[in-house]
Design a protein that fits this description.
Blueprint (H helix, E strand, L loop, with lengths): L1 E3 L5 H18 L7 E3 L2 H8 L5 H9 L2 E4 L6 H8 L4 E6 L7 E6 L5 H13 L4 E4 L4 H11 L6 E4 L2 H10 L6 E3 L2 H15 L5 E6 L5 E5 L16 H14 L3 H17 L6 H15 L11
Parallel strand pairs: 1-2, 1-3, 3-10, 5-8, 6-7, 6-8
Antiparallel strand pairs: 4-5, 4-9, 9-10
């Protein structure tokens, strides 16, 4: 796992995420090697470049790339470096339930993203909502649906899906949409959840490592105070485990622990205290009885 912390609140968030991931790995008998690499403002100060060649070489060889300061301009350089084809975003909402949004990344990736969304739906509740504005998109979804017996597919407009998610919680939990619509859905869902800190994303590839990060937030003004909200970063770590490393039981354990800790935390808490609460919730959050590692 290539860890790109950068500066600002990035090092604080990465430190707590690494600590939580180590405990999840211990609980599930996994070995995760985290390699911390110079990135962004930190790398610029030390090496004169936000993405040194040594950093780029290292994260290209990793199984997953984890970024805790996605607001840094160098983050776009990392995305351009990797062969990314689709994106999975998760919005945590303790009231309405979590929402997962799948979208294509780049030209010609629609079919691949739709196929991945169906695979994800089959592993969840066998229910998928498609939001598309063109006949071509609807045809691609219909063609993929032909190969998935028993999977429920619903087609909604952008306004329809946002109204449904707001007024009828639980009836929409997994959406596939083109990029220009997916972004609006994620932003609206984050608004309903009350914070951008509830959003985590995975940019995934067929040929190389995936990229995992929380939604960029303006947190750098609290850097050094130990009060940065780690919710999105830890949810991104859950996506890394499941979508990046194929360890879906471990991912579910961490996701449940973050939800449980978020439900019980006081209004004001430190980054370290929240991570401690997540670690405390991990044993109860594990519901599997596996005695082997999952095959990716």
């Amino acid at each position: 796992m290539a860890c790109l912390a950068g500066d600002g609140v990035g090092p604080e968030l990465m430190a707590e995420a690494s600590r939580v991931l180590a405990e999840v790995a211990r609980l599930h008998a996994l070995h995760i090697e985290d390699v911390h690499l110079p990135f962004g403002g930190e790398a610029l100060t030390r090496y004169g470049h936000p993405l040194p060649l040594s950093t780029r070489d290292a994260y290209r060889k990793a199984d997953a790339v984890f970024v805790s300061s996605p607001g840094d301009p160098a983050f776009d350089g990392v995305k351009a470096d990797l062969d990314l084809a689709w994106r999975v975003s998760r919005v945590h909402n303790p009231v309405r339930g979590d929402l997962v949004v799948v979208e294509p990344v780049g030209f010609g990736a629609d079919e691949l993203a739709i196929a991945r969304a169906f695979q994800l739906a089959a592993a969840r509740r066998a229910r998928l909502t498609s939001v598309g504005s063109t006949p071509e998109w609807t045809e691609l979804v219909a063609a993929e649906a032909d190969g998935w017996d028993g999977l429920e597919v619903e087609h909604l407009t952008l306004g329809g899906v946002l109204t449904r998610f707001r007024d009828h919680p639980g009836t929409v939990d997994l959406i596939v949409a083109p990029g220009h619509l997916a972004g609006a859905i994620v932003d609206a869902a984050a608004h309903l959840a009350g914070s951008l800190h509830t959003v985590a994303s995975a940019w995934l590839s067929q040929t190389g490592p995936g990229l995992f990060a929380a939604q960029p937030c303006d947190d750098d003004e609290v850097a050094g105070f130990g009060v940065a909200d780690a919710t999105g970063t830890l949810l991104a770590a859950s996506l890394l485990l499941g979508e990046g490393l194929g360890q879906r039981s471990a991912a579910r354990t961490l996701e449940r622990a973050v939800r449980a800790a978020d439900d019980v935390r006081p209004e004001v808490t430190t980054t370290r205290e929240f991570a401690d609460d997540v670690i405390e919730q991990l044993p109860a959050a594990r519901t599997d009885t596996e005695h082997f590692q999952e095959v990716r």
